[in-house]
Amino acid sequence: MSLSTDEVRKIARLARLAVDEEEVTTYARELSSILDLVDRMNAVDTAGVTPMAHPQHATQRLRPDAVTEPDDRDRYQRNAPAVERGLYLVPRVVE
Amino acid sequence: MQWETVIGLEVHAQLATNSKIFSGASTAFGSEPNTQACPIDLGMPGVLPVLNQGAVEMAVRFGLAIDADIAGQSVFARKNYFYPDLPKGYQISQYELPVIGQGQLVIELDDGATKTVGITRAHLEEDAGKSLHEDFHGMTGVDLNRAGTPLLEIVSEPDMRSPREAVAYAKKLRTVVRYLGICDGNMQEGSLRVDVNVSVRPAGQAAFGTRAEIKNVNSFRFLEKAIEFEVERQREIIEDGGTVEQETRLYDPDRGETRSMRTKEEANDYRYFPDPDLLPLEVDTSFIERVRAGLPELPDDKKARFVSDYGLPAYDAGVLTAARELADYYEAVVTAAGGEAKLAANWVMSELGGVLNERGLDITESPVAAEDLGGLIRRIEDQTISGKIAKEVFAAMVAGEGSADAIIEARGLKQITDTSAIEAMIDEVLANNPGQVEQYRNGKTKVLGWFVGQVMKASRGKANPDQVNQLLRDRLDG
């Protein structure tokens, strides 16, 4: 198994995912099988192949530098659970 | 033991685009909270980023100015971390393939020598929003107006060896981005943010010591002080037999010290990967050449031209080209003054500089227009007024009394160059001071200066001092 249960816990914590303790072993096994596939691909000699940044053979289209978005704050803030003086309120973050 | 300081800087320059890097929301500073945060900036589901051509052009402008390699193809990556002012849960940045590669910047040191500082890379990324931690019933307020503002992160090589060199580099970088018109360079408003990597090592040792990264340095003075403090702190730790920890520290300007930011365990595990929402950015030769054609004269070139064309000392040329607006003002003064380049430099740097300094004004807010200052200098040169009277006229110009000619006319300040008029004043002074005349004739020729002063006083400063001097000698010696 290429991925340890500790690594699964760490990845879950970094991604803020709650993973039940009994699921950890299952995830370790399943994620490991994905990594094993990656290992098999890594074994292929790719010298001389340009790394692919995106599966589509296309490049980024650029937009002109112009302001096109109107202020629609009130509408967006109707989705927010708490708002005050135009600010979105979230549980206190202590630095 | 002799210690050597090693410093590298990471500078975030907010690019002066109208709209955000990946959305069409405005980037204007100081608006009401969240009035410039559109669904893309808010990280709403289903939205897609579209790259701003203006931001790419500005990055390329910078790349050309520092003589850097510009990547034909670069890639945007996601930097993953969780914080409320980063709604998507990741910042779009560039990691393995930045748009701007290796370049360099020439800085000038205190002794006038120059040094080349390497620039490792510069990459495009989006800014985060702002969290306000003051009391909102125990909650944190989030303003996302700044989220998505384009940033150019400019990473230097660890080439600087003293706080003064780091300040010289930061100042030069600020000058360059302002010349290029890609960033307003305002450190207080956070348009230009400087993070410093500092380490020390025994002199002569090749390997670098462990570095600390210092954040929250929002002025050149604080930059110098933060480094000075940090160098001392690290030196003491090592001399006491300890080891420096690699960490991020915050500069506290009130206490003049750096302190450790409580770092979370996996703080630096950002799990970068190419952003599937964005295709690779391609910058081809025609794009680069189009940007190159629009480049302004850069500070080093302008400085060299001021020395060669105007015959200015390197120091004056450096001061006058530190900001593009100041250089433009100076050149307008020289034109209006009819070519009196050195005299114009003196007036711009000392008289005008003094007034601006005293009132906390920028050259663009100068109370005296360049054409008017040039007009004043022209009157000094053609001897309509003396340098001393010119200061009086200048003060009146600052007070808004009009052009130099109007003030000279209104106040009757025109210099007296009529020989007979000056002679009449000399005769009167000599007649009233027989004792001093006697002294002079007995060989105490130093009283000549006193006589010049008396005649100038009699003319209320308007007599031509050179003429007074000459005519006095003729009278006393004759």
What features would you describe in this structure?
The complex is a heterodimer of chains A (95) and B (478). Chain A is mainly alpha-helical and 95 residues long. Chain A has helices at residues 5-14, 21-42, 73-77, and strands spanning 62-63, 83-84, 87-91. The longest helix of chain A is centred in the N-terminal third of the chain and has 22 residues, at 21-42. Chain A starts with a helix and ends with a strand. The relative contact order of chain A is 0.08. Chain B is α+β, with helices and mostly antiparallel strands and 478 residues long. Chain B folds into three domains: 3-291, no CATH class; 297-411, no CATH class; 419-477, Arc Repressor Mutant, subunit A. Chain B is built from 15 helices and 16 strands. In chain B, the strands form four sheets. Chain B has an eight-stranded mixed β-sheet with strand order 6-7-10-1-11-12-13-14. Chain B has a three-stranded antiparallel β-sheet with strand order 5-4-15, with no helix packed on it. In chain B, strand 12, helix 3 (220-239) and strand 13 form a beta-alpha-beta unit. Chain B starts with a strand and ends with a helix. The chains are: A mainly alpha (95), B alpha+beta (478). Chains A and B meet through helix 1, strand 1, helix 3 and strand 3 of A and strand 2, helix 1, strand 8, strand 9 and strand 16 of B. Strand 1 (62-63) of chain A pairs parallel with strand 2 of chain B.
Tell me the fraction of residues in β-strands of chain A, as a range.
Answer: 5-15%
Strand order of the largest sheet of chain A: 2-3
Query: Main beta sheet of chain B, described?
Result: 8 strands, mixed
What is the residue-averaged pLDDT of chain B?
93
Radius of gyration of chain B: 30 Å
